[in-house]
Amino acid sequence: MPADVRHPNALLLDEIYRDLTRLTWHTVEDIVLHPATRDINPAARTPVRGRAAVEQWERELVQAAGGALIMDVSDISANDYFGTVLGTLTAQFVNGPHSQPFCGVWRFSDGKIAEHWENVYRPALLAKALGTSWSASANPQPAPAEEGAASTSHTNADTGGFPGGFL
After folding, report:
1. Could you give the CA distance from residue 116 to residue 129 in angstroms, rounded to a whole number?
2. What is the pLDDT of residues 27-51, one digit of tens each?
3. 22-61 b/e (C-beta count within 10 Å ≥ 16 → b)
4. Residues in Cβ contact with 71 at an 8 Å cutoff, skipping those fewer than 6 apart
5. N or C: which end of the chain has fewer CB within 10 A?
6. Contact (CB, 8 A) for 8 and 110
């Protein structure tokens, strides 16, 4: 079998997406996470800061999916400074099944993760799927107030603009 010649940061991201509980094993102490629904929910506009808060954020997100948050990765690219991960997020949240494309953007500092932008294609749909039960202690995110937030149009409110979304 040929040796894996990917960049070490690409290998690190591959490990994390196979097991999200390993995220904080590879972060700086003051990591910053920008939530997927930051452009939809005012409560999510504030980044999650610090290793302990990010670990709690990820743990509670997986719990909100009944322990079965699937991050089906299709592509990973990374260098010394940045990484991107493309794929499909699938989960069974309180308001039903949810599946949509994601693009995680990562910033590295000296081989450790310093910052992460969660991005999904339609953050309003994610917020709706999470429902009001999603209240991660690290940074609460209530569901969007407008029922129409999950429309089929491709406005900035639906896509969250760039880079606004999820893992």
Report:
1. 22
2. 999 999 999 988 887 777 899 999 9
3. ebbebbbeebbbbbbbbbbbeebeebbebbebbbbbbbbb
4. 17, 20, 87, 88, 89, 102, 167
5. N
6. no
d(CA 36, CA 105): 11
Only one residue has tokens 């960049």, namely 7
Does residue 61 contact residue 140 with C-beta atoms inside 8 Å? Answer: no
The CA distances from residue 76 to 36, 41, 48, 61, 90, in Å, are 19, 28, 24, 22, 18
Greatest distance between any 2 Cα atoms in the chain: 53
Residue 62 has pLDDT above 90, yes or no: no
Q: What is the rounded CA–CA span in Å between residue 31 and residue 116? A: 8
Residue tagged 């991005």 (tokens)? 119
Return phi, psi of residue 96, to 5°: 115, -175
Phi, psi angles (nearest 5°) of residue 66? 65, 25
